[in-house]
């Protein structure tokens, strides 16, 4: 009893020192007693609140042009668990050529297959024309008002805060001269004037389903050896294609955590001219440039 009294006295002294109003504590206790929540109720309330947030802001999670900054991986909270049917039995990328769009649509376009189409960039001048200096020139010339700042920019491990800052790096670094800081970054192009210029050098991959339009925003990723995108899952609704214009890149592909005992991890190597097609919303993916030559790719989602 004495011990309890001593404890109480010390607690009250502590509360006084910290300027805590003891009446508040009393009323809080009352509140707690009245509304004491068991685990089940707490879980239901948290779920309901998250569902309300999702209903209100969920559409922003699907947009590549989010207007509010969403904490990293926040969207994964709402991902429905996979039943693993998309990845079961897939152990490698499938290299194909001369593929009919109907066959592609029926067999590969909307399931878990990871395809590498080797003959889809035959007439594209982008393979010769696109490099750091060409893209810098296009953006400086056709976007003097920097509308492109509204598009998304992924800096990965660099400190660049925008595409323009990245395109302004000094010449030696841009050329990946030894001793300069490495870089890898990516961006979406939501500037229509620039899309028109860039699309003079490539076209909609011939094997895509006939009904699929080339109207999605294009994504460009570029950078040097040993660098790439970290392991991640996208939240963009549709599957995508990506053409390797320069350099060689490895894709490390992994199933979602709930499928790791049923599905396989594998890697795919893409060379200049290859087009990789995969559902980046369903496969975790990480990229790594293998070549000395700077890797440049262009891609988009397809419906
Ligand atoms: O090409 C890269 O490095 C990353 C591409 C990517 O993450 C994507 O297309 O979803
Ligand atoms: Fe991705």
TrEMBL record:
It comes from the Eukaryota. InterPro entries: JMJD6_ArgDemeth/LysHydrox. SUPFAM superfamilies: Clavaminate synthase-like (SSF51197). One of its GO terms (molecular function) is 2-oxoglutarate-dependent dioxygenase activity. This is Cupin-like domain-containing protein.
